[in-house]
Design goal:
The protein has seven helices and no strands. Helix 1 runs antiparallel to helix 2, helix 1 runs parallel beside helix 3 and helix 2 packs antiparallel against helix 3. It is elongated.
């Protein structure tokens, strides 16, 4: 494959989040192209992004530092920006920013009873909160309903 096709394939795998596959495409190219060349710098930038995705920040920082000393001003600027992101201190994340998923107990009990639910709990009837005694309609409701029915009958018979 040509270099540009391999780079496009690596970029596609990077967009899918397949960082291992991206690095497997880029590592042979990194050996062919020196860091000082434009293609080599572009390959290293993609590798830095893949390393960041994998959580391998030390490799990404080391390569970023090398790219900040390169000849290409655009690559140098991008490397400085990435380096500032990589070297920034990690801030604690508030608990309200993410959802915690409870762990489910998947240990099977006797009689194929799963999810840790005992038979006693499963057979207990559900009790609903009391709602109070049922009351009959007041005298006003049937009178009102009868008046509406008579009015509709007269209206529709005209």
């Amino acid at each position: 494959m040509t270099t540009s096709l391999v780079i496009k394939t690596a970029e596609a795998s990077l967009q899918r989040g397949d960082y291992c596959q991206c690095l497997s495409f880029l590592e042979p190219l990194a050996e062919q192209y020196p860091l000082s060349s434009q293609e080599g710098a572009k390959i290293r930038m993609l590798m830095i992004t893949a390393w960041m995705g994998q959580g391998d920040d030390q490799k990404a920082i080391a390569t970023c530092r090398l790219l900040t000393k390169g000849k290409e001003p655009e690559i140098r600027q991008q490397a400085k920006q990435l380096l500032s992101i990589l070297e920034a201190p990690a801030l604690p994340r508030p608990g309200s920013w993410s959802i915690s998923i409870p762990k489910i107990d998947l240990i099977a009990e006797r009689d194929n009873n799963y999810l840790g639910v005992s038979k006693q709990k499963a057979k207990e009837p559900k009790y609903y909160p009391p709602t109070g005694p049922t009351k009959a309609f007041d005298i006003g409701f049937p009178t009102f309903a009868l008046a509406i029915l008579i009015a509709l009958t007269i209206f529709l018979s005209i």
